[in-house]
């Protein structure tokens, strides 16, 4: 029986950030899908097997919350991690109402993002805790230790 690779949708209008996040997950064995806006993200979720959705709040066409709202409307039980550099209490309140798995403030460290994704996989998909590279190793281009502020050096 073939073991299915975990897959992650990375949706952000910043191409450099999408590629950076891809560089964190692909070396650890993830299949990654990239979307530059909310409409593209929905098309990918509709056509591909996605285990975790990373979605930016502020994107063209549809916001990250619009994507999560669409997923919930069509009964898609996927862990959604909302990323934003501009969080406010209204966004946080709506994200919680939509049962967003986690809200991640930008900038974030690669190791924190990895831990959040692994936690989502374990909780929603009973993913085995066998891949130590996802929790113990620094991301490509990331320092081995993060300072307490969450910033990598």
Helix-strand blueprint:
Blueprint: E1 7-11, H1 15-25, E2 31-35, H2 38-47, E3 52-56, H3 64-73, E4 80-84, H4 89-97, E5 102-105, H5 110-125, H6 133-136
Parallel strand pairs: 1-2, 1-3, 3-4, 4-5
Helix pairs in contact: 2-3
Key traits:
alpha/beta; 6 helices; 153 residues; 5 strands; disordered C terminus
Describe the overall structure:
With 153 residues, the protein is of the alpha/beta class. It is built from six helices and five strands; from the N terminus they run E-H-E-H-E-H-E-H-E-H-H. The protein has helices spanning 15-25, 38-47, 64-73, 89-97, 110-125, 133-136; strands spanning 7-11, 31-35, 52-56, 80-84, 102-105. The model is unreliable at 135-153 (pLDDT under 50).
Strand percent estimate: 15-25%
Give the spatial strand order of the biggest sheet: 2-1-3-4-5
**Structure summary, number of beta strands:** 5
Shape: globular
Global Rg: 15 Å
Uncertain regions: pLDDT < 50 for 5+ in a row?
135-153
Query: How confident is the prediction overall: mean pLDDT?
Result: 84
**What is the chain-wise order of helices and strands?**
EHEHEHEHEHH
Give a quick summary of the entry.
The protein has 153 residues and is of the alpha/beta class. The protein is built from 6 helices and 5 strands.
